[in-house]
Amino acid sequence: MTKNKRNDFHPDEFVVYPAHGVGKIISIEEQEIAGLRLELFVISFEKDKMTLRVPTHKALDIGMRSLSSPDVVTKALETLRGKAKVKRAMWSRRAQEYEQKINSGDLLSIAEVVRDLHRNDDQREQSYSERQLYEAALERLTREVAAVSGTDERGAAKRVGDVLVTRAA
Fold first, then answer.
1. Cα dist. 115→41, 110, 134, 151 in Å?
2. How many angstroms separate the Cα of 21 from the Cα of each of 10, 42, 151?
3. Is 68 within 8 Å of 76 (Cβ atoms)?
4. What sign for the dihedral angle of Cα 61, 72, 101, 132?
5. Cβ-count burial 100-128 (b if 16+ within 10 Å, e if not)
6. Rounded distance, CA 67 to CA 77, Å?
7. CB atoms within 10 A of CB 54
8. Where are the alpha helices (DSSP H) in the chain?
């Protein structure tokens, strides 16, 4: 059973871990934890200077996935072009929903957060918490666009930024 799930991911492959975004599997190792031998993916999140060890048999259950296909990236960028959908709910409730979307690891949900929280220069100010959520979503989106298209983050940020600037006001 472990073998099948493990074969979905390989060292030197980029993966998306829902709570942290894009990371790279640097190795697969065995460790004894509480008397049990566990096989673990060792995932490096270079930008965050963080390393995560994920049991191989739990990877799919926690939502770890391969990078999105170029088609999904295209859909995510199309999502950015749409008109912001802001519910009339209280900010605390909306903030919770945005946070859930960001941590879902789903690229289209993350793109929706970027779209909904993006402000053009002539629009009203963002609160600190709005800005934090926007930047977190934008960073996740940009990193995955970069990894999928094989460009650096600067190139991906420009690509995402160009879409946001040209979208419907």
1. 33, 9, 9, 22
2. 17, 15, 17
3. yes
4. positive
5. ebbbebbbbbbbbbbbbbbeeeeeeeeee
6. 15
7. 19
8. 2-6, 70-81, 91-104, 107-117, 128-149, 153-166
Q: For the segment 40-98, what is each residue's pLDDT rounded down to a tens digit?
A: 999 999 888 999 999 999 999 999 999 999 999 999 999 999 888 888 889 999 999 99
Residue carrying structure tokens 């793109």: 111
SS3 of 106, please? coil
pTM of the model: 0.87
Q: pLDDT tens across 130-169, in order?
A: 999 999 999 999 999 999 999 999 999 999 999 998 875 5
The two tokens of residue 65 are: 């996935």
CA 96 to chain centre: 17
Distance of alpha carbon 105 from its chain centroid, rounded?
5
